[in-house]
């Protein structure tokens, strides 16, 4: 997810700061190039603006879908599994529960849907790079098998892996540990899966905010037209922009007021 994605371009950092400044402060900054986030043109107002009372934030984007079901991810058991069979069982049960949901969505013709393997690590290695597909599949098989082996006996009584298999196993488990930390696995009403913060609940909205790197999770405030912000998410099929473009962002754009 974006938590493991650094902003390396100076312009991104400048826009990030400018977008959260109060308008009276931002207006004091000279715009010699005509590209500051607060400028107005034929495209309409800024993507992100501060509300009039400074207690709200208005973001422009598009509603993509809503959360249908969630499963808390057992991240605390990943490291403990190699020493404690009970922790290994908890890790296996959690992964298998997620797998059952994935198979319901993507069909059981495959033993394990590739979407499931990818989502469990948010498509990324521990080094913030995209997981090569062949390495991802091998890592998933080795890591999940190791968890099942740990259910029977601790690691100090097991046979040793080859160096290559150990590297592949540890790489996938490391990515799982980062992705699962304080997170929920979820399904969406349109039939896709994702991972978000542990606060995610059924009925929450999945939105794409213009210029953001990841989808965001918003929850409608009761009796209001405003939303509560519940963090970013990894949603399989929404990360490359294809689904966003297919939904016609020009016609379906809307403003979300976060409060």
What does this entry look like structurally?
The longest helix has 22 residues, at 85-106. Mean pLDDT is 81; it is low at 2-8 and 30-46. With 259 residues, this protein is of the alpha+beta class. The chain is built from 9 helices and 8 strands. Strand 5 and strand 6 form a beta hairpin. The protein has helices spanning 10-20, 23-26, 77-80, 85-106, 114-119, 133-150, 163-180, 242-246, 249-252; strands spanning 48-50, 57-72, 183-188, 193-197, 205-209, 216-220, 227-235, 254-258. The chain has a 6-stranded antiparallel β-barrel. 32% of the residues are buried.
List the helices and strands and how they pair.
Elements: H1 10-20, H2 23-26, E1 48-50, E2 57-72, H3 77-80, H4 85-106, H5 114-119, H6 133-150, H7 163-180, E3 183-188, E4 193-197, E5 205-209, E6 216-220, E7 227-235, H8 242-246, H9 249-252, E8 254-258
Antiparallel strand pairs: 1-2, 2-3, 2-5, 2-8, 3-4, 4-7, 5-6, 6-7
Helix pairs in contact: 4-6, 6-7
Q: Could you give the distance between the termini?
A: 23 Å
Q: What's the total number of strands?
A: 8
If you compute it from the alpha carbons, what radius of gyration comes out, rounded to the nearest whole angstrom? 21 Å
Strand line-up in the sheet with most strands: 2-3-4-7-6-5
C-alpha geometry: elongated
Low-confidence stretches: 2-8, 30-46
Q: What is the N-to-C order of secondary-structure elements (H for helix, E for strand)?
A: HHEEHHHHHEEEEEHHE
**Class derived from helix and strand content:** alpha+beta
What is the average of the pLDDT values? 81
Strand content: 15-25%
**Count of helices?**
9
Question: Roughly how much helix do the residues carry, as a percent range?
Answer: 25-40%
Largest sheet: 6 strands, antiparallel, barrel
């Amino acid at each position: 997810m974006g938590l493991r994605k650094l902003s390396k371009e100076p312009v991104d950092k400048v826009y990030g700061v400018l977008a959260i400044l109060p308008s009276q402060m931002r207006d004091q900054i000279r715009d010699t190039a005509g590209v500051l986030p607060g400028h107005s043109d034929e495209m309409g107002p800024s993507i992100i603006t501060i509300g009039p009372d400074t207690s709200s934030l208005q973001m422009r984007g598009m509603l993509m879908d809503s959360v249908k079901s969630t499963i808390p991810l057992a991240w605390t058991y990943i490291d403990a599994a190699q020493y404690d069979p009970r922790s290994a069982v908890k890790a296996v049960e959690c992964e298998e529960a997620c797998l059952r949901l994935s198979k319901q969505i993507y069909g059981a013709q495959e033993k394990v849907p590739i979407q499931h393997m990818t989502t469990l690590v948010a498509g990324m290695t521990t080094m913030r790079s995209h997981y090569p597909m062949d390495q991802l599949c091998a890592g998933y098989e080795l890591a999940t098998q190791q968890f099942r082996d740990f259910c029977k006996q601790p690691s100090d009584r097991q046979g040793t892996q080859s160096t290559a298999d150990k590297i592949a196993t540890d790489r996938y488990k490391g990515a799982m540990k980062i992705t699962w930390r304080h997170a929920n696995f979820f399904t969406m009403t349109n039939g896709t899966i994702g991972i978000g913060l542990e606060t995610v609940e059924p009925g929450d909205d999945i939105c794409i905010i213009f210029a953001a790197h990841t989808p965001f999770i918003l929850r409608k405030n009761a009796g209001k037209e405003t939303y509560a912000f519940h963090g970013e998410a990894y949603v399989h099929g929404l990360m490359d922009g294809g689904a966003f473009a297919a939904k016609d962002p020009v016609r379906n754009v809307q403003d979300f007021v976060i409060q």
